[in-house]
Amino acid sequence: MAKVYMLTETSPFMMSFVIVTDKDNCIVIDGGRREDMPLLKKYVGKRKIKAWFLTHAHNDHIDGFVYEMGKDGGADFDIENVYYNFVDYDALKKKTGMPDREYFLAELEEMMPAFNAVKDKFKDKARIISQGDTLYIDELKINVLFSLHDGLYSNLMNDSSLVFKVTGKKKSVLFLGDLGPEDGDVLLRESGDKLKADVVQMAHHGHMDVSMDVYAAIGAKECLWCAPIWLYEEKAVPDWMTEEWINKDKKRMRMYGTAVTRRRMEILGATKHYVTGYGTQELEI
Ligand SMILES: [Fe+2]
User: Fold this and answer.
1) pLDDT grade for 250, boundaries at 50, 70 and 90
2) For residue 251, how far is its CA from the centre of ligand 1 (angstroms)?
3) Contact 134, 143 (CB under 8 A)
4) What is the mean pLDDT of residues 192-212?
5) Where are the domains of the chain?
6) Rounded to the nearest whole angstrom, what is the distance from the C-alpha of residue 147 to the centroid of ligand 1?
7) Which residues lie at CB < 5 A from ion ligand 1?
8) CATH 3.30.413.10 is held by the domain 3-284
9) Which of 5, 12, 55, 157 has the greatest number of C-beta atoms within 10 Å?
10) Ligand 1 center to residue 59 CA distance, Å?
């Protein structure tokens, strides 16, 4: 049986998973920031990384990867393939007409220039994957259920998150990255019949995330929260979620704090919750 490790945070609310297969190979998902690299290296050990998935270009997900590549081409890791599907920086930089262009450009600048600057260091291992693709890694089957859709601009980076299901001998886990309400609806429309899974990684750290309908279609009874305690215990409408913030970008709708998501999961019958704020979590799939 494969083991899934959801690593606890060294840097705030990051996302980092290590999956160890039956054949003692590794899959890494995101990895968090550079401060999170020592813990990641401890869990990967000397194993081959058959696949390193990068869900989207935000620093709490890929800064560590970019840092390691820039430092020495990722020499501390034995990487076979790097899977991702990121936005086109040069094309989007010229785009206009979105509701909040200032925010759009800030999103674009957060990690993309740094990522593009190290791309050459792993060009032989880079694989662009898309919705509909299937991968087989040792005993695990991986179905890609959502990838970049051009035109989702209200939350550019989160809305470009890769979504994929990892199916093991015992259980399946759906990884939602940082998907928000808008692209969650697209996921449901386009891949709704493929979402069923035993375990779900809660979208966007559990808040401002996909709708209850998406979680209902997944039907998971176990939830993975990449969230520190303060975020896991966040109110339904946090103080920072003001009317002004919601209305600045006219599409920033249906966003709530973690309390709403936790209530939804309770209604849907989820019984087990793994939270990074309580330490590194492990489960078998
Ligand atoms: Fe994130």
Assistant:
1) low
2) 19
3) yes
4) 96
5) 3-284
6) 16
7) 60, 178
8) no
9) 55
10) 8
